[in-house]
């Protein structure tokens, strides 16, 4: 009986060791957006604090921007799931790129936690995108918005792009939540 228990224990230890030494490909590349279905309150508070701090700084500046990038005539619910994930990837890419730019010293520390959170979300979305069909073509609505984003990146100042991205962060987070739910959101 003792020998059987020892053999079983040895088999379990060996199995666990081999599993760790040779991870399965499908375990390494799993689309895991489910953690974004319900965003953690401390992450939301950090984003809110950053947004409010940014708005205070903007009030003191004379920056005039009129980017309407996040003003869309359609809702994310009107997109297919692959389009939703593609939209969120583009939005997160813009936001993280803007938050990585050199910042006003008054704002640099406030954005560290949201930047880390949004960067992780972007990487998780990219894993999902790599698993989606590489032949997926965006719908007309999304293609038009992606073109608008591309044009804005080429024509707008970094300051205006940053302002637009930060001021619409909660829309981006809602789009992330909808893509994580993989169902129709409003």
Automatic annotation (TrEMBL):
Keyword DNA damage belongs to the record: no
Signal sequence coordinates: 1-21
Any GO BP annotation: defense response to virus
Coiled-coil positions: none
A GO-annotated cellular component: extracellular space
First-listed, main subcellular location of the protein, grouped into a coarse class: secreted
Keywords from the UniProt entry: Antiviral defense, Cytokine, Secreted, Signal
GO MF entry, a single one: cytokine activity
Domain of life: Eukaryota
Keyword Signal attributed: yes
Subcellular location: Secreted
Family, per entry: Belongs to the lambda interferon family.
Protein name: IFNL3 protein
